[in-house]
């Protein structure tokens, strides 16, 4: 009975706090907190680069789109007071000469993971563009590792925001056991920002303004995540010691 009471009370506070965090943009006054020394660090990983173009459609290359949107994302997050670490900031990848195919890909990803794991980043956003044999597929999707609750929460918030992009296919977040999500130690989300294989979406992905909008939506999702995290940390601070 006692346990049930505690559980009910905790659930009650969680529901209330999540509602406060969601309903009040800026809860936790994040802009002010972030100006203090020790601002949270976010790692951003623009997929592919160099000889690895990722998805290709004519002369449109995924690696270029990834870099453009990640630079915009960096700017938006920095404007909100976060510190940002990019795993690449130009047209290259981290594989060494002499490696080929899967071996090179694995080396590149391992180097990126080393950068992320040693960066003191609190969360990771790895950004890609999708492609499928069926060109009807479209829309942006956020993926999380199935064992990461924080990763799932972050992905859900990002997905929620992406669903508000005008005329976008409204998708749900999904879990994934991709190499990057399996090997990073922090809550991580893989954002596939759209399908290059869909002609209508390809046009959008070539538009810098559209990429900026997607970057803003991802930023809004990150802010919601931090708002709830801040609310939770406040609640834990005020809980009775023997609770
Ligand atoms: Zn990719």
TrEMBL record:
InterPro entries: MurNAc-LAA_cat, N-acetylmuramoyl_amidase_3
SUPFAM superfamilies: Zn-dependent exopeptidases
Top-rank EC class of the record's enzyme: hydrolase
CDD domains in the record: MurNAc-LAA (cd02696)
Example GO molecular function: N-acetylmuramoyl-L-alanine amidase activity
Keyword Hydrolase in annotation: yes
Enzyme Commission designation: 3.5.1.28
Keywords: Hydrolase
MurNAc-LAA domain span: 113-223
SMART domains named in the record: Ami_3
Pfam families (UniProt xref): Amidase_3
Gene3D superfamilies: Zn-dependent exopeptidases
PANTHER family: N-ACETYLMURAMOYL-L-ALANINE AMIDASE, N-ACETYLMURAMOYL-L-ALANINE AMIDASE AMIC
Protein's UniProt name: N-acetylmuramoyl-L-alanine amidase
